[in-house]
Amino acid sequence: MSDSRSRREPNKTIITPLTLGGSMIDVGTEELLEETPQIVTVEGNRYVLHERENGDVALYSAICPHQRGRITAREEILLCPNHRWKFDPETGECLTVDDERLPAVPVSREDGSLVVETLPSKIA
Fold first, then answer.
1. Is 51 helix (H, G, I), strand (E, B) or coil?
2. How far apart are CA 51 and CA 47, in angstroms?
3. Angle at the Cα of 95 from the Cα atoms of 46 and 64, rounded to 5 degrees
4. How far is CA 64 from CA 36, 58, 97, 101, in A?
5. Residues whose CB is less than 8 angstroms from the CB of residue 121 and which lie 6 or more positions away in sequence, other chains included
6. Which residue segment(s) compose the domain that 9 sits in?
7. Which of 23, 48, 78, 116 could form a disulfide with 60 if both were Cys (CB 3.0 to 4.6 A apart)?
8. What is the rounded radius of gyration, in angstroms, for the C-alpha atoms of the chain?
9. Chain-centroid distance, C-alpha 26
10. Is 34 part of any domain?
11. pLDDT at site 123
């Protein structure tokens, strides 16, 4: 398995993804899970990477479903600065407005890499 190249900037990681055998997309290494939630950029788009309390890993869209604001990761919460919508990093559910959530896909661990079959849609 090939490694993706990543570089760390304050509050975000830029990842140059590799498409692996089949349709899997490498979104980084397990080292990224040392501090989650965090913003990562994959294929030029922003996502939120988060390791849930049960050990599962999710990759969420970092675009707010309200007015397409850029989600930021703030310790235990995901926040859209446009109108202060808050999202739970465990579920992607909006804590401010009922029936809203960030689109997400599950992340698999393969030989130290984090991989997804597809990237989450930008808007649910």
1. strand
2. 13
3. 25
4. 18, 16, 12, 8
5. 61, 103
6. 5-116
7. 48
8. 14
9. 13
10. yes
11. 53
Lateral strand order in the sheet of 25-29: 5-9, 12-16, 38-42, 45-51, 57-61, 104-110, 113-116, 25-29, 18-19
CA distance 36 to 51: 6
Residue 42: both structure tokens together: 């994959």
Assessment of whether the complete model's pTM goes beyond 0.85: no
In the chain, the number of structural domains is 1
Residue 124 maps to a domain: no
The tokens describing 118, both together, are 């597809």
Q: What is the pLDDT of residues 31-57, one digit of tens each?
A: 989 988 989 888 888 899 999 999 999
Which residue has tokens 């309200």? 66
